Amino acid sequence: MSSREGTGRTALITGASAGIGTELARVFAENGFDVVLTARREERLRTVAASIEKEFGVKAHTAVADLADPGAPALLFDEMRARNVIVDALVNNAGYGVPRTFRKNDWPTHAAFLQVMIMAVTHLSHLFEPGMTERRYGRILNVSSLAALVPGAAGHTLYAAAKSFLVKFSESLALEHAKDGVNVTALCPGFTHTEFHDVLGNKPLVSKLPSYMWMDARTVAAEGYRAVMDGKVLHVPGGVNRVIAGATRLLPETLALGMMKRQSKRLRVGD
Question: Looking at the annotation, which residues are catalytic?
């Protein structure tokens, strides 16, 4: 298979200004896709776009959007249509964590989180999926988390729940597209070297984890790209993460919850 298998096609990546999102944009570009980079930080987007165009010789569009705004997915879709950009691959990567326990955060904080992590993903998929189906080619990559495959932790209360939604949504959508050329994949990375934990505020805590627990964003992105191109519905990058996911399924629920309870205390910031 050609290393430029995406030539003539376009991928839209949310949360593309940093971390796994940036690396996913680079991997798609490396494989010949033009890319649309979307996030809130315009300057960062332009920097990433310029680097991608220079290195890979593809078009790198930017579109500033705040997916916490319920109207953002429709505006983004309309903007692509106005620019005559056909989106062949949708990468739902944008996301973040909310520290502290459920009761310690107000409802607007939780509502914004759910809008970004669940509603925006679903809405963008609903908007771009019909065109993919009509053209009989599409790729939808939903960046979930290893947290979706293990018991929920105390603190960051909605994170695992939202990521679990992405897994089940991806599985169902993939079955609906079993024979029409549209691949849907849930990517479930574990601890990854990005700015995620810096923003969350628990970097000093998670940094105490052994090095084998960590992956670099480039490797995660490359595995995610290959998984969706190959039509793999669920992919957990990294051997250690796959062992953790598999072992969790085999453990009695009470034992698994007990282990997560102890781990939560080690990694949680605040009450």
Answer: 159
Cα Rg, the chain, nearest whole Å: 18
Rounded to 5 degrees, φ, ψ at 174 are -60, -40
| pLDDT value of position 1 | 39
Terminal alpha carbon distance of the chain: 51
Element (H, E) at 55: helix 42-56
The SS3 call for residue 22 is helix
Tokens found for residue 154: 């105390």
Dump pLDDT digits (tens) for 171-183. 999 999 999 999 9
pLDDT digits (tens, 9 = 90+) for 131-156: 999 999 999 999 999 999 988 777 88
Q: How many domains, in total, are found in the chain?
A: 1
Enclosing domain of residue 61: 10-267
The CATH number covering residue 230 comes to 3.40.50.720
Neighbours of 253 (CB within 10 A): 9
Q: What is the pTM for the complete model shown? A: 0.87
User: Mean of the per-residue pLDDT values for the chain?
Assistant: 89
Torsion angle in degrees (nearest 10) through CA of 23, 25, 29, 35: -170
Q: Can you read off the two tokens belonging to residue 175?
A: 């079955």
Three-state SS at 40: coil
Q: What is d(CA 72, CA 64) in angstroms, rounded to the nearest whole number? A: 10
